[in-house]
Recover the amino acids of this structure.
């Protein structure tokens, strides 16, 4: 994945960027790979800039599935309202299982 101005920056240094356009599944896979890279960088560096880079991967990935950034945020906010958001300090130690029927 190439950031917006990288080819210009390379050209300003009298070098040539070799780029190609991706579409469809190849573009989705490249975005998924970029998301993995940015997540790994955040896990290693823990910076706000790396978190922003994660969003830079998530938003176009949502668009490849036909969703806008606004729709993504609306769903995130809805999940928060219904109690499905991730709190900052709570961790479930084991999966929840429904009670068993004593007749079983």
């Amino acid at each position: 994945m190439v950031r917006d101005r990288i080819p210009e920056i390379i050209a300003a240094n009298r070098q040539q960027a070799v780029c190609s356009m991706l579409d469809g599944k190849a573009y989705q896979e490249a975005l998924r790979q970029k998301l993995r890279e940015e997540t790994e960088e955040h896990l290693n560096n823990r910076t706000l800039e790396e978190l922003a880079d994660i969003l830079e991967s998530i938003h176009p990935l949502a668009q490849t599935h036909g969703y806008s950034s606004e729709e993504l945020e609306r769903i995130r906010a809805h999940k928060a309202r219904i109690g499905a958001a991730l709190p900052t300090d709570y961790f479930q130690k084991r999966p929840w299982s429904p009670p068993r029927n004593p007749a079983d």
